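Retry 2 of 3 after timeout on previous attempt. Resubmitting structure tokens to design endpoint.
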């Protein structure tokens, strides 16, 4: 028996619990089998150029406090970050994280490029050490060199053509997570 399940159009993105129960006869006895599943409900894929901070985050893990929309990481509370700033340049849009972090978004195969300026936020005053990477559908597409608080801003320009799930990752590179306030400044998907 094959079943098709379609979530309601207004279902929130994320995992939707699903329980399946089957009744059958075996060796002359009535039996019941129950299975529990999680049905992944995806948000609508972008139909135009979109800021990464404006997309639904399917997954968000962060090394210290929550990852921030359009703010630096700040400290442990949500919304406690400051204006995203890399090498003296400020950004209205982007994602502020702290290593080790991962943000997953749904591009639905409709985007061609991901661009950003990556670096450690100026609020850290020159310390911290991380590496940035972009993955699509489980494949690593781009990895930065080691980035410190004193490094120049790293331009990110990654072909994500056809990708459904894109992950933005930041990894600690020196075993000390002190000062690893990593920004995906101006993070944007080019989509059609």
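Retry 2 succeeded. Sequence:
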């Amino acid at each position: 028996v094959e079943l098709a399940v379609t979530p309601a159009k207004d279902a929130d993105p994320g995992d939707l619990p699903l329980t399946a129960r089957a009744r059958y006869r075996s060796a002359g006895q009535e039996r019941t089998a129950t299975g529990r599943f999680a049905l992944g409900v995806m948000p609508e894929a972008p139909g135009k150029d979109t800021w990464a901070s404006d997309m639904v985050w399917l997954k968000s893990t962060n090394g210290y406090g929550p990852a921030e929309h359009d703010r630096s990481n700040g400290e442990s509370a949500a919304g406690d970050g400051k204006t995203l700033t890399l090498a003296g340049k400020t950004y209205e849009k982007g994602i502020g994280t702290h290593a080790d972090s991962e943000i997953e978004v749904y591009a639905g195969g409709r985007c061609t490029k991901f661009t950003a300026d990556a670096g450690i936020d100026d609020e850290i005053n020159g310390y911290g050490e991380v590496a940035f990477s972009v993955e699509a559908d489980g494949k690593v597409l781009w990895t930065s060199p080691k980035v410190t608080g004193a490094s120049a801003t790293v331009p990110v320009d990654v072909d994500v053509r056809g990708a459904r799930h894109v992950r933005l990752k930041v990894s600690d590179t020196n075993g000390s997570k002190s000062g690893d306030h990593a920004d995906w400044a101006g993070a944007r998907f080019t989509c059609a």
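Attempt log closed. The chain has two domains: 1-41, 50-191.
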